[in-house]
Amino acid sequence: MTGVALLAARRTAVVPRGSAFRDLEPFALAAALIGPLLAEAGIATEAVDEVILGNALSGGGNVARVAALAAGLPQHIPALTLDTQCCSGLDAIRMGAARIAAGEARYVLAGGVESFSRAPLRAHRPRSKDEAPVFYRQPAFTPWPEREPDLAAAAAALARAEGISRQAQEAFAMESHRRSLAAAPPDGEIVPVNGMAMDPFARVLSPALLARLPVIAGDAAFGVTAATTAVEADAAAMVLLGPGDEGQVQVLGALARGGDPLMPALAPVAAVDALCARLGLHARDIEHVELMEAYAVQALAGIGRLGLDPVRVNAQGGALARGHPIGASGAVLAVRAFHRLRAAGGRALVAIAGAGGIASAMVLSRQDETLRPWQD
Predict the structure, then answer these.
(1) Rounded to two decimals, what is the model's pTM?
(2) I need a surface site. Which of 192, 204, 209, 266 has the fewest CB within 10 A?
(3) 276: domain range?
(4) Quick one: which H or E segment has residue 127?
(5) R_g of the chain computed on alpha carbons
(6) Is 86 a catalytic residue?
(7) Confidence of residue 368 (pLDDT cuts 50, 70, 90)
(8) Other C-beta atoms lying within 10 Å of the C-beta of residue 296
(9) What is the spatial distance between Cα 231 and Cα 2, in angstroms, rounded to a whole number?
(10) Active site residue: 86, 87, 288, 339, which one?
(11) 70-83: per-residue pLDDT in tens?
(12) Which of 177, 288, 324, 339 is catalytic?
């Protein structure tokens, strides 16, 4: 097994659905990142061995292949699109790292892309000529219709089970927005697309404003609201992976774990615990943490169960202040972790939950004195 490094990492802005990226197909968002990534690392297009992208909403096809061709990569370079819902972008990076670690590739472009704005309408085909198509918003996440989780309801149930009040969730959301407004992304993190060079959603929130919002799931004491739920968004995020001796930011390890489909927000806890045990680390000792904020309670439960220092978690704001481009969100976290490490050094933990009770986690490091083998 050989070491694996992130040689470059870029993303688009994360833009709420129906706004600046509303007319852009997912492949166009992803294609915009490929040239800047290769240029930053000084890698020729012909040297790329594969493109791997996560995507959840495009309705099939191979978005990664279309993006690669749109970006002008040679036709012989293969491309793969995978769907593990919210984990897709981070899983694509994990898969790309595994390719390199196994000696199957030298350079892999990996990440995720999503467009809520351009997501196709989905319908179940009629079983007979007398039936009409039945439109649906999300696919099944379990084989048991009676146990199929509504994600907002699952978040509210978790809040009650963990004793995380609505007010605690709102305080977390306010802090996420505050941090995002206080810390602009570093130069080189965002590739401008359609004039968008900053995440536009973050704003100043107040307790009085948040208290007026209706509960969308759960009860008055522990329910979730629009402010404690990440908004649907459009974005792409990608990294260029290569041999460990060619970059400063190393992939120390990554893995995926499954958990209870009815409590998907808790799945990252098991994934992080297993990964840290494998690496001989304690999550609480990792300097930088990028933890998905699909719901405020999801992040709060993870922080509590993993014993994390809240100051180290999403130090520059999280998805509550940006938005949630499902298949790209894990890759967005990885890109942000890369730039944090380049600026400050140390180690970074990236973790995200996915519908159906799955999670992915990755640990990166900029401890340049030691190149450790990548582990999966």
Answers:
(1) 0.95
(2) 204
(3) 1-118+144-376
(4) none
(5) 20
(6) yes
(7) low
(8) 30
(9) 39
(10) 86
(11) 999 999 999 999 99
(12) 324
